[in-house]
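ARCHIVE CARD
Drawer: 12
Card no.: 0347
Subject: one protein chain, sequence and derived structure
Cross-reference: see card 0346
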Amino acid sequence: MNEPRYRRILIKMSGEALAGEHDIVSPEQLDFFARQVEQVLQHQVQVALVLGGGNIWRGQRAIARGMDAAQSHYMGMLATIINALAMQDALERRGIDTRAMTAIQMDEVAEPYIRRRAIRHMEKGRVIILAAGTGNPYFTTDSAAALRAAEIHADIILMAKNQVDGVYTSDPRRDPTATKFDTLTYMEALNRGLAVMDSTALTFCMDNNIPIIVFNAAEDGIIERIVCGDQVGTLVHRD
């Protein structure tokens, strides 16, 4: 097997990626992503996952209709825990040892997130699933991914996107003239307002020099290709 370029990765996946045509959480999608993780583990790569919750709860819609913002954000955090437990089950059905860890204490269903414990789990070959965002309202799961990547010393963040294979000048699903970037600097992405991750998370990655690869989550085997060094998607880095 090819020598991996990255030894410890954090995969950020939206909640929408876990939804099926008729299911809020699709067993087929869960198994698809569990298989992608299984492929990566064959290269002795350590894996952390951060999942969104948009398939279950869309906080901004509720806020627009008058719900208190903090209340809505906490509901979104709980949605990510549901997704984490579903992903944990899919991974463990493939024989993959996992630990779900939450930023909100919920001892009956998951471990509390403790940085040193999370690192130790990965060193033992366990996949960690980091749920409930940062545990604070007003911060997205993108920000949680950036923060956790820094805390666990991840080599890179892999940003899984729906139906888009990288970062474009504009939305390629709406603009046929949109062109794809192979590489970008953090500052270019911020100045252009490009859809890498939210600006708070992207600034944090820039300040802590955490590279990001944006890729199409639906492509089979793509995470393994990235880990093994293939040029896939869009790389966002310092220079």
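Annotation on reverse: The CA atoms of residues 69 and 88 lie 29 Å apart. The mean pLDDT is 93.
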